[in-house]
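G., before I forget:
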Amino acid sequence: MIIGVAKEIKNNENRVGLTPAGAGDLCRAGHTVLVEHSAGLGSGFSDESYAKIGATIIADKKILFDRSEMIIKVKEPLAAEYDLFHEGQILFTYLHLAPEAALTKALLEKKVIGIAYETIVGRNNTLPLLSPMSEVAGRMSVQIGAQMLEKPWSGKGILLGGVPGVESAQVVIIGGGVVGTNAAKMAVGMGARVTIIDNSGDRLAYLDDIFGGRVTTVMSNSYNIAKWVEKADLLIGAVLIPGAKAPKLVSEEMVKSMEIGSVIVDVAIDQGGSIETIDRVTTHSDPTYMKYGVVHYSVANMPGSVSRTSTFALTNATLPYALKIANKGWRQALKDDAGLARGLNVYNGQVTFKAVADDQNLPYTPVAEILA
Ligand SMILES: NC(=O)C1=CN([C@@H]2O[C@H](COP(=O)(O)OP(=O)(O)OC[C@H]3O[C@@H](n4cnc5c(N)ncnc54)[C@H](O)[C@@H]3O)[C@@H](O)[C@H]2O)C=CC1
Ligand SMILES: CC(=O)C(=O)O
């Protein structure tokens, strides 16, 4: 198969879809790997490092897209990229289609085979291609939140861990999955008081166990959320209903109840955001805005700024799937792996992921029908 690794164009998106080692594995399996000129630079990989393992460097983005049977990316395509795709081309990347009507329309019109990293399911119902970036973003959410609480960033001027004789900050995390657990690890490590809110009793029991009483666990309902949002110095949004728009769990009134200079980091922004006052996606170059005196941070590609760590972690997870798709062809690979089949979001002008179809009022075609 001819596989194209495209250079990312999103603001400060420094990751790349494959490391040279990953590209090398695909070349050794007999595939042709085309890498867009300078695609790896943001993650510290030169064109030469890809050329050395047998990949071909392509200077022109359009030629790369025209020649490739499968495009491997990191982020969902932006408007400037829509026209580059062609019918029957496989797109293997994060897609986050539920809140992105224009992108969905473009992929349907182009009849792209869109396999989304974030909806592929692994053993025990895990999300193996989302998890590594959720680990990164969860950890980052606390270091970013800690900085935003500093006065020069319009925060209330408090240190997350406090000091002896002065109380530490209250961190409230809504969603105790991969992002939430990693955020809690960092916040506990920095000495903050930490509360995790989730709607799964099993998950809360697990978190209570692993943190050994160093976090408070709370069942998710609007009463509890309102109570804890009011107390939060740093509020982290980390909920997910796979493939669907994030539920808006924190209302405008709840945000108004927060103290001036408190901080919200809504990691769930890539699925549309879980906080009512998060009304825009921000960028690494302009990451925050103020509403009701509260700092709002809503960057949808947080791991893009710690690109070297993230690119290694992402390729570790995606490569086995990329190899399956390339070796067997997409159809057989999906037939052989029901979890990979859950990644198919669009095919030949049809939406094949139910939550995306429901959120966008579009007709839904089950993957089983496509594979029959
Ligand atoms: N902004 C960024 O750069 C990044 C964003 N993300 C996003 O972060 C979000 C969270 O991802 P993960 O932690 O991997 O998902 P996950 O599936 O591991 O965890 C989600 C948690 O939310 C909980 N949940 C669902 N509905 C809830 C409700 N009504 N109340 C409370 N909890 C609820 C679930 O029980 C689960 O524990 C996703 O939208 C993901 O795409 C991930 C990486 C980077
Ligand atoms: C998960 C995701 O959207 C990201 O890593 O950017």
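The domain at 2-119+306-371 is CATH 3.40.50.720 (Rossmann fold). The first helix runs from residue 20 to 28.

More on Monday.
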